[in-house]
Write a structure and sequence with these properties.
mainly beta; 27-stranded parallel beta sheet
């Protein structure tokens, strides 16, 4: 306990059983702690170090703190244990996890000024909660991921013009109770799997999201994009109580291309009406179908555009303050009450 290793190639490599408390690494080229055995560690700190923790066996790690560290924690397939209370500052990648993660628990991740918060590509059965991040270049990369769950995440103060979350899955991803503020685009989802977004607040400096060849369910969403809201291609989207606002770049709030849209209860699409605006569209359907309870569209140049063999069945449609055309009708079938 209360030890420091500095100016070395490696810190601690554990193949047996170890307990560590108040351990510091300064100017370590590779790993501060490399655990290939069984370890309980509390209060690890790294400064100007390649990697704070490499974990590929069994262990409990709490109160991990890093400054100017390349990778804070890397967790290999089939590892077991707990990662709790991470505080990363001015670091590269905060957590990299891959392979089977069903026996790992992740909670309490805090990061300020990092290149990327999470890389969960090629991971399976990973669940993580209680996440806070500020001034992050990107939030999540998760290609070829299976069964990922993220909850209670709040990301703010990002001036990045890039993509916050890029996820592809043939399986399932669930993100709940999450706020992301900033970025040129909040998310890009693909891979043919199922995505679930519950209680999300997304505020984007450009487009909120894009969905390709997948299934998306949104419940209780509050989204705002300076340019665009959600664009989907060859996908199925189900929404319940959803609000999408488009800003002064006069784009499209919700575009559905070659897919389907199902609305339960309400979908509200909003734009501040401007007579100089000739490009904004509330809801655009192209080779698609919509079945909806209630759709309210306010303040766009064109409220609803139904194009090219699309079909609509909307129980209640409200089009107000749209400065150009309320409803552009070129559907093959339209039923509106």
């Amino acid at each position: 306990s209360n030890s420091t290793i500095s100016d070395s190639i490696q810190g601690i490599i554990n193949f047996g059983t170890a307990e560590i408390t108040d351990f510091n690494c300064v100017n370590i080229q590779n790993n501060c702690v490399n655990n290939a055995g069984s370890m309980n560690a509390d209060s690890l700190f790294s400064n100007h170090t390649g990697q704070l923790l490499k974990h590929n066996s069994s262990g409990t790690f709490t109160n991990l703190r890093s400054n100017h560290t390349g990778v804070v924690a890397e967790i290999s397939a089939n590892s077991t244990g707990l990662i709790q209370d991470v505080y990363a500052n001015n670091s590269g990648l905060v957590i990299r996890a891959y392979g089977n993660q069903q026996d790992m628990t992740y909670t309490g991740i805090n990061a300020n000024m990092a290149t990327k918060l999470f890389d969960f590509s090629n991971s399976d059965s990973l669940s993580i909660n209680n996440i806070q991040g500020t001034s992050l270049n990107s939030v999540l990369l998760a290609n070829s991921v299976n069964s990922l769950e993220i909850s209670n995440m709040e990301i703010s103060e990002s001036n990045s013009v890039g993509l916050a979350m890029e996820i592809s899955t043939p399986d399932s991803v669930k993100i709940s109770d999450t706020t992301i503020n900033g970025y040129g685009q909040t998310f890009l989802f693909s891979g043919g799997g199922t995505f679930i977004l519950n209680d999300t607040t997304f505020l984007s400096n450009g487009k909120v999201g894009q969905l390709s060849s997948s299934i998306l369910t949104i419940e209780e969403g509050e989204w705002e994009g300076y340019s665009h809201g959600l664009h989907t291609q060859y996908s199925s989207v189900t929404v319940k109580n959803m609000n999408i606002t488009v800003g002064e770049d006069h784009g499209t709030a919700l575009q559905v291309l070659g897919g389907s849209l199902f609305v339960s209860e309400e979908l509200n699409l909003t734009h501040e009406a401007q007579w100089s605006d000739s490009t904004s569209i509330g809801l655009q359907l192209i080779w698609s179908q919509i079945i909806a309870d209630s759709v309210n569209i306010n303040g766009f140049s064109t409220g609803l555009s139904c194009e090219t063999t699309s079909t609509t069945a909307i129980d209640h449609l409200s089009l107000t303050d749209n400065t150009g055309m309320g409803y552009f009708q070129a559907c093959s079938e339209s039923q509106i009450d």
